[in-house]
Amino acid sequence: MEYQYSFSLDWSTDEVIDVVAFFQSIEAAYEKGIEREKLMSAYRRFKEIVPGKADEKRICNEFEESSGYSSYRAVKRLKESDSKIVKMQSR
C-alpha cells in the first residue's frame, strides 16, 4: 500500500524507526498475523516515545485514515487475548 506514517519532527531517527516498526507490526496483524510478544514489544516502545493518550490517539487515527488499519483495535485484541498470534480481520 501507498501511504505515509505519522511522526513528529521532534523525534530522533531511532524513535521514528521504532514508531514505523510499531505501525508495520499493526499491518502484519491485519495482513498475516504477528506473534503476540513482537506486537507487545513494539507497542511498549511506541508508548515510550508517545506516552500521552491524546498524542497516541491523534497519531494512530492518522495512521488508520491513511492505511485502514486500526492500531486501537489491534492493541485491544493484544491486551484481551492470550493467543500467541494476533490476527485481525480486515474490514
TrEMBL record:
InterPro entries: BH2638-like_sf, UPF0223. Gene3D superfamilies: BH2638-like. It comes from the Bacteria. Coiled coil: none annotated. Belongs to the UPF0223 family. HAMAP family: UPF0223. This is UPF0223 protein D3H55_18745.
